[in-house]
Amino acid sequence: MEAAEYPGVSIGEGYAIGTLDDLGAGPGFRKVRKGLGVTAFGVNAIVMPAGYESGMHYHDQQEELYFVHQGTLEMEFGDGSVHRLEEGAFARVDAATLRKVRNVGDGDAIYLCAGGKDGYIGRDGRLPEGETRVH
């Protein structure tokens, strides 16, 4: 990652911290993976203006998880079903499932989309030496 490309992102030894605004401005994709250096999965935040909708699409391999941070979305699927997603809602979509997203609210909608493949790692968190519990 080029530090000059995301000057608001704080990068430390083994971590990166940034805000939505640190990753870009205006409507469209905010490249969370690139901006924060995520390597284990794909992740973007999308700022979608009122009335806008994505095209119908699917993926070859990547399962996706959507999280609505702000606004109200509708997700339409290849089977013709339409689901309303309010702030705080999640949607998991298999790779091959046709889907499109539309902003049905009055203002910008902001949602996070994370994608990956090849399964769940499981609980692999560990306490540092000398610690007996998570604080």
Unreliable segments of 5+ consecutive residues: none
Task: Tell me the overall shape.
Answer: globular
Strand order of the largest sheet: 3-4-10-5-8
Distance between the termini: 32 Å
Q: What share of residues is helical?
A: under 10%
What value does the Rg take, in angstroms? 17 Å
Number of alpha- plus pi-helical segments:
1
- CATH architectural group: Sandwich
CATH superfamily: Jelly Rolls
Kindly report the CATH topology: Jelly Rolls
> What kind of sheet is the major sheet?
5 strands, antiparallel
Our estimate of the beta-strand percent is: 35-45%
SSE pattern = EEEHEEEEEEE
Number-wise, the strands total 10
> Mean pLDDT, nearest integer?
94
Quick overview:
With 135 residues, the protein is mainly beta. The chain has a single domain, classed as Sandwich (Jelly Rolls). The chain is built from one helix and ten strands.
